[in-house]
């Protein structure tokens, strides 16, 4: 069945597929955001008409878009100043 479906798609449709663990944050509980170490980060192509991801975040955060509906959102790192 998969072969029949693939044959009905345009040439090159699967050329950018990868075979890696997506490293979802918490798949068992429905959180399909990807972790920073995911092989899907920056591996997509910018052929999508959508400029934002599932949560409304910009689709390109890094060198390229991420594979999947969630763009990885890095945790801001830097100096934290606590005023007492």
How would a crystallographer describe the biggest sheet?
2 strands, antiparallel
Protein structure class: little secondary structure
- Strand and helix order: HEE
Q: Within the largest sheet, what's the order of strands?
A: 1-2
In short:
The protein is mostly loops. The protein is built from one helix and two strands, in the order αββ. A hairpin with a 4-residue loop joins strand 1 and strand 2.
Descriptors:
little secondary structure; 84 residues; 1 helix; two-stranded antiparallel ribbon; elongated; single chain
Describe the structure.
By secondary structure, the chain is largely without helices or strands. 7% of the residues lie in helices and 8% in strands. The protein contains 1 helix and 2 strands, in the order αββ. Strand 1 (24-26) and strand 2 form a beta hairpin. It starts with a helix and ends in a 50-residue tail after the last strand. The model has no long low-confidence stretch (mean pLDDT 80).
């Amino acid at each position: 069945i998969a072969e029949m479906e693939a044959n009905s798609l345009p040439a090159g449709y699967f050329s950018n597929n990868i075979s890696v663990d997506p490293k979802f944050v918490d798949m068992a509980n429905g959180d399909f955001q990807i972790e920073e170490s995911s092989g899907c980060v920056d591996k997509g192509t910018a052929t999508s008409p959508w400029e934002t991801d599932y949560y409304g975040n910009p689709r390109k955060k890094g060198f390229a878009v991420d594979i999947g509906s969630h763009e990885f959102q890095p945790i801001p790192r830097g100096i934290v100043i606590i005023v007492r």
